[in-house]
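Sync notes, pocket subgroup
Present: LS, DG
LS reminded everyone that the earlier model was apo-only. Rerun requested with zinc ion included. Inputs:
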Amino acid sequence: MTLRPAKENAGITFVRTDLHGAKVHARAGSVCDTTLSTTLSENGVKVATVEHLLSALWGLGIDNLIVELSGEEVPIMDGSAAPFVDLIRSVGIAEQKALRAFIRIKREIEVRQGDAVATLKPYAGFKTRYTFVADHPVYNRYPKEAELDFADVSYVNDVSKARSFGLIRDLAQARAINRCLGSSLENAVGIDDVKVVNEEGLRYEDEFVKHKVLDAIGDLYLLGRPMLAEFYGCMSGHTLNNKLAQALLRCQDAWDVITVDHGAEMSGSPVRVPSIV
Ligand SMILES: [Zn+2]
């Protein structure tokens, strides 16, 4: 994967260098598969596992980027967004002249699937609440709820390092159907019947629920812009996150796009622009 600067208002575009530079735009409407990760498809060209990179991009305030890939899948790295954050910060981020545009939620939108719920509500900033419901002796030992207001919380320090996780026995099943073939304790937190298997333990006490927040941020960034909203998820995963994004796109009265210049941000405007970094 190679990241290259893109022009103002260009958005995030994936380019498959192994397929003559075929482009796949980061759009919620291009999602074709949400089994275990989020996959995009445009004119038959796919890009898989986009959510952790996109989460890092929202977290760092990157609106425009070309992401070149020499294969179908974004590298999984350590299963979190931290390696992307570190690499991008090591080269620096260029500020462009265009004003930053945000999707402002004007009324509540909710989608459900069984007991799972995902909601966006109006909020003058960006806040996430997530409830992780899983009855398992290991999950039961750690926090299952997180409320993060990014006016006070740092995406980089408090969210980006949260890794993917799963039960070792589910992983064995996934491998049997040719999924997660590259997954290991190098890029996920593995859980057996009684404990976290990784020697180093967890990076945050609430790493599981924070990874769900990290995923939701990445999935929602397929809307193309950061949001002024409160997101609430209960057992919501890639499928429901994308349903929420698509539902929002259909309800045009539920949101608008506003631009906020730096001056407004600095002068204590009523819009608390989330400086997520
Ligand atoms: Zn994830």
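DG: Residues 129 and 147 are 4 Å apart (CA to CA).
LS: Residues 262-271 have pLDDT under 50 and may be disordered.
Action: DG to write up.
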